Amino acid sequence: MAVAMDMQKEAKVDNKPPTEQRRVVVTGMGVETSLGHDPDTFYENLLQGNSGISQIENFDCSAFPTRIAGEIKSFSTEGWVAPKLSKRMDKFMLYLLTAGKKALVDGGVTEEVMAEFDKAK
């Protein structure tokens, strides 16, 4: 049995207006990884080919098939997240918040600068 197929398809026209593009400038960096807690250490470990993968130590993983991971070790929120908030947050939230705050500091965005921003935008 032969089946004829129409290979010519009409081009789909997108009637949406083009999205306004804005330039973005990266002014600061912050990291919390298994290879380091600051951009310089992280980058050096990457260049040296160091692996952040090791045996899982933060919890008992004997019930799971995986025994290795890229754990963030010696992590501290001291000076970055209030202790009361730190106790109520998941680790991934603490990593995100700490790295974000480090990026702001690295970029020179101080509390005085933040106070000047129009938060309504």
UniProtKB/TrEMBL annotation:
Q: Which Pfam families match?
A: ketoacyl-synt (PF00109)
| Residues covered by region (Disordered) | 1-20
Question: GO: which molecular function terms?
Answer: 3-oxoacyl-[acyl-carrier-protein] synthase activity
| Domain Beta-ketoacyl synthase-like N-terminal span(s) in chain numbering | 22-113
Q: EC?
A: 2.3.1.41
User: Keywords in UniProt for this one?
Assistant: Transferase
The protein's matches in InterPro entries, at most eight in alphabetical order, are given as: Beta-ketoacyl_synthase (IPR000794), Ketoacyl_synth_N (IPR014030), Thiolase-like (IPR016039)
Any single GO CC term annotated in Swiss-Prot or TrEMBL for this entry? chloroplast stroma
**Which is a GO BP term held by this UniProt record?**
fatty acid biosynthetic process
| Residue spans of biased composition, Basic and acidic residues class | 7-20
Q: Spell out the protein name for this chain.
A: beta-ketoacyl-[acyl-carrier-protein] synthase I
